[in-house]
Amino acid sequence: MAQNPSTHTESTALHDTSIITSANNKELSKRIKEISNQVLKRNYELYKALENK
């Protein structure tokens, strides 16, 4: 019984779609920086609160 090889595999499917990254999407880059700054600020506030206990 001969097997038919698939012409459309997962690896070719990845080449058919574009991957969105901060390098090719300026809005995403801006949003990541905003969230990163919020996280850094919150972590700093938590650190200071623990330090002052």
Write up what this structure looks like.
The longest helix has 26 residues, at 26-51. It contains 2 helices and no strands. It has helices at residues 10-16, 26-51. With 53 residues, it is mostly helical. It is elongated, with a radius of gyration of 23 Å. The chain has a domain at 24-53.
Tell me, briefly, the overall form.
Answer: elongated
Instruction: State the distance separating the first and last CA atoms.
Output: 74 Å
Order of helices and strands: HH
**Fraction of residues in helix:** 55-70%
Largest sheet: none
pLDDT < 50 stretches: none
Number of strands: 0
Radius of gyration over all CA atoms, rounded: 23 Å
β content, as a range?
under 5%
Mean pLDDT across residues? 85
Structural class: mainly alpha
How many helices does DSSP assign?
Answer: 2
In short:
By secondary structure, the chain is mostly helical.
Topology, pairings included?
Blueprint: H1 10-16, H2 26-51
List keywords for this structure.
mainly alpha; single chain; 53 residues; elongated
